[in-house]
Amino acid sequence: TQAFERIKANAALIKACAAAMDDEAMNKRIYSILSMPDDADNLRDYLLAALLGSVNKLDCYGSLFDNQQVKPLAKTLAANHTLTSLNLYSNNIGDEGATALAEMLEINSSLTTLIFDSTWVSRETRDRIAKLLERNRHNQAQKECTLFGSLLPHCRSLLFPPARSTTLSGS
Predict the structure, then answer these.
(1) Which residue has the higher pLDDT, 149 or 58?
(2) Hey, which residues does 59 pair with through a beta bridge?
(3) What is the pLDDT of residue 166?
(4) Ordered DSSP codes for 73-128
(5) Average pLDDT for residues 35-52, to the nearest whole number?
(6) Which one, 5, 66, 72, 99, has least CB within 10 Å?
(7) Do the Cβ atoms of 27 and 63 come closer than 8 Å?
């Protein structure tokens, strides 16, 4: 459609606008995009990708997101490599939405912080998300250490792990 082509042509402008938005304005834009019906041209997904393309921290605290809105957000974030922190606390996310977030984390290695109210989420899904976030944090630390070597204090233990001691007991 013409609207989709105009949006694609203005992706850089959308990213620049997103960088200038405060959290409240960003949340309103994201909520309105997530409330759009799914369409054949994937307009909703493209708008989300363009909007989140230059953001590294997203605070959607209390934005009234539910499972149906978290699923397209998770789909978009699977391909996002800029966002490192996402706050979805005080939303209406259940196991279905949390499972979509876990599936996103299987692919996305950039997101290292995810905050959400897990009251309605199964222990299995919570544990899966926790393990994936820990993997991402570890991978991020390794990337930093590869770039900066032993200049960063936490890199010394990653680059030069302490020798394992073996204790034998018995006679």
Answers:
(1) 58
(2) 87
(3) 42
(4) HHHHHTT-SS--EEEETTSB--HHHHHHHHHHHHH--S--EEEE--TTS-HHHHHH
(5) 78
(6) 5
(7) yes
